[in-house]
Design goal:
seven-stranded mixed beta sheet; single chain; 5 helices; mainly beta; 228 residues; 12 strands; globular
Length: 228
């Protein structure tokens, strides 16, 4: 799953040249659910940066702790929690990486999953809006997960779906049929992602030291020998 995110300052203007940015993007070294994230939505035909609470909270949800921070791609159309949002309110969350924990005999070892070139990733998500008054509202989101590529499956069986920047507007557009949007929800190409071990200091969600994201070992990535 995706229980923790690494979001450094990102060159979003290079990733999405048409992006409208009205406020500074939110960043963080070790971000856990139940806090705000920056997200990208389509407004007036252009992607626009906004903010939403990480944990999908539709108006009928009674217990905040039940707000899902992830949605399995296989259940998007079968669960009422996700069905309408998948059809009309898709979003993207720009990140630098996703923390995962690999089981070991003594203790779980955290890894940071990133692009092999350390560039930004656009994670697929859903969002919803809960009106508290006629003019005030709260937005929230959940990331969409898919099976991990085989190289990374020993670290985590699922990861957030990655949307290519060239397909961003097509993914965000509510006029895009769900059958077309679903085709984007596949494991990332093995040559795109890698992962390296990081300090167990990341286990504490209150730890926002930059060292949380520093490699303490080599990157696990697909090699040329594996490609042949």
């Amino acid at each position: 799953m995706a229980g923790r995110l690494y979001i450094p300052p990102l060159a979003l203007d290079r990733l999405l040249p048409e992006l409208v940015v009205d406020e500074a993007p939110l960043t963080g070294i070790n971000l856990a659910p139940r806090q705000p994230l920056s997200l990208v939505r389509l407004e007036a035909g252009r992607p626009r940066l906004g903010r939403a609470f990480w944990g999908l909270t539709p108006s009928w949800l009674k217990v905040l702790d039940h707000a899902p921070h992830c949605a399995r791609a296989e259940s998007l159309e079968s669960r009422a929690m996700f069905r309408d949002a998948f059809a009309a309110r898709r979003c993207l969350v720009p990140v630098g990486g996703i923390y995962v924990w690999r089981p070991t005999p003594r203790a779980k070892q955290p890894y940071l999953v990133t692009r092999v070139d350390r560039g930004p990733l656009l994670l697929a998500g859903l969002w919803c809006r809960f009106h508290t008054t006629l003019t005030e509202y709260n937005d929230s989101l959940a990331l969409i997960t898919v099976p991990s590529p085989p190289l990374l499956s020993p670290l985590s069986d699922r990861l957030p779906a990655v949307i290519d920047a060239g397909a961003a507007v097509h993914w965000l557009d509510p006029q895009t049929p769900t059958v077309d949007a679903r085709q984007r929800l596949t494991p990332a190409p093995e040559e795109l992602l890698g992962a390296f071990p990081v300090s167990r200091g990341v286990n504490d969600p209150g730890n926002q030291e930059a060292s949380c994201a520093y490699p303490i070992g080599p990157m696990l990535r697909r090699t040329s020998e594996q490609e042949t």
